[in-house]
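Q: What would this chain look like folded?
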Amino acid sequence: MTDLPLRLAAAPISWGVCEVPGWGYQLAPDRVLSEMRELGLTATETGPDGFLPAEPAALRTTLSGYGLSCVGGFIPLVLHDPHVDPLPEFLVAADRILAVGGGVAVIAAATGTDGYDARPELDASGWDTLLHNLDRLTAAAGERGLDAALHPHVGTMIEQRPEVLRVIEGSAVTLCLDTGHLLAGGTDPVDVVTLAADRVRLVHLKDVRAELAARVRSGDLSYTDAVRAGMYTPLGDGDVDLPAIIKGLTAAGYAGWYVLEQDTILGSEADGDTAKDDVAASIDHLRAVCATTSA
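A: My prediction, written as structure tokens:
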């Protein structure tokens, strides 16, 4: 998108496309990719397995057919279990991203079960294994000219502020700064920018209703039900301080991609119209934010 002073990309989750079984109506790739381009977006993440072709040449052809380039892809991996080696699965996904021109392998510390509504607590052994695996994946990605970036995410092993800080302090992995998931998990993303802007390799721009996020943290509401209830909003309609985040990252010299995301669950194909409208509203708000922060 050439009328913004930052590199803005799309993600299929804004159209309700998600790896979780039963996650609402799944729109066809043609509609999602076409609407990305109609909105002026020229890059995207790849989305979940099965959404786009697995074979790199076919994936490259598909994306280029819509005038889109690849930023990276989301890879949920079990990192805390000493009996599970995440490296082989990571390398397959990372090599696919690299083959189509992507620069970031976005890692989530998966629980090992479907969905994001429950997670176990890590013990000392689990933490040691997770941090060791993060460094292994970071090194393997670096050998290929790719960055591995950990994505703190609700319902994964790295969700809450103490866990985010422990990763920053205990591993060399870079970060995918997801503004919505951080706030939903109880971490102010502005604080992460202040503390570790130099570790940020990718940004997922999200907004979130803090009151619904608080109900998820308290156990009063499941994550899935909160998303269905509209916990994630178009940019500017929630409680994330986007101007402070963008200003802080810019001051720190961040020049990477900002991936526009609004996690949503569609009830039907017709709900895709609302999803597209929400993305358009977020782009408009981002223009206003950029005009203010660059003034």
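The CA atoms of residues 10 and 44 lie 4 Å apart.
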